[in-house]
């Protein structure tokens, strides 16, 4: 018999009535010797979640909501605040509210790991709204709607804490960013529930999925299995290799033509004709028309009224599965990924 969640489903989308908070940090005793300080890394290699079909079992696993946005690391130093993307690009100016809140954190030096998101009316992260707030792919607008859901602490008060276990890092993070806050930096709270139960509740609320983390693990860059992601719906990045024209659709785009990777090559995986609105279709058409080529980069079979482009744009596609011949089923366009976000293209096995 599975253990029921300690909190009802609704707190997944908002602050709980009695948020979980860490114990207040005690002031350091001046009589105690100070530990030597560690140099702050100029850029930390971020820990990535490995995709799994089902949540793991066991008391060592902690669970959180999976947020749909841009992965960021926030560096707070005496000289100021830097906000870097997973690819190492400086996006401090693009997230002024997050940067301002980072300056107010009650610590002199820190590196926070988190996800920049924009919430919809139901309190769910909405990737499309985030992109719109930033001016679309390649835009340079500053988003004042974006908030950072902080879920880990890499460096704290002069000390590199990546070698310590997750439970200790979380304790420090919860003291720095209390649960239930409404500021531009908020805590991505752990949900105490059985993984299968939490996944079901998350899917019922229309969330993207959940993250499982080994409480005893250190912080290691890359996809080593310390963090796992379990999705309610399948959503991945695919290269845009062209589009079919239509006079009846937004932007004249009837269907995007998509490709995945297989080894060192691209493989055609079908198309997507839904998920666009007038604005996103116009932005897409403008980006694609800069990349037009005469011959397709991938064999797509015979296509009428098709325009082919260099496979440089990565679209985030939500889909229901695969056909027997490796084509996407029930695909829907979610948005373009940024190059600075180190957008990954789905790999066929």
Task: Provide tags for this entry.
single chain; 349 residues; alpha+beta; D-amino Acid Aminotransferase, Chain A, domain 1; OB fold (Dihydrolipoamide Acetyltransferase, E2P); six-stranded mixed β-sheet; 5 helices; 30% strand; globular; ligase; LigD_ligase_dom; DNA_ligase_ATP-dep_C
Describe the structure.
This protein is of the alpha+beta class. It folds into 2 domains: 10-16 and 44-231, D-amino Acid Aminotransferase, Chain A, domain 1 (2-Layer Sandwich), CATH 3.30.470; 234-341, Nucleic acid-binding proteins (OB fold (Dihydrolipoamide Acetyltransferase, E2P)). It is built from 5 helices and 19 strands. It has helices at 96-103, 127-133, 166-176, 195-204, 278-288, and strands at residues 50-51, 61-65, 70-77, 80-85, 110-117, 147-156, 159-160, 185-187, 209-214, 227-231, 234-245, 253-262, 265-272, 292-293, 306-309, 314-319, 321-322, 328-329, 332-336. Strands 11, 12, 13, 14, 15, 16 and 19 form a 7-stranded antiparallel β-sheet that branches. Strands 3, 4, 5, 6, 7 and 8 form a 6-stranded mixed β-sheet that branches. A hairpin with a 2-residue loop joins strand 12 and strand 13 (265-272). The two termini are 36 Å apart. Mean pLDDT is 87; it is low at 6-10 and 13-23. It catalyses: ATP + (deoxyribonucleotide)n-3'-hydroxyl + 5'-phospho-(deoxyribonucleotide)m = (deoxyribonucleotide)n+m + AMP + diphosphate. One of its GO terms (molecular function) is ATP binding.
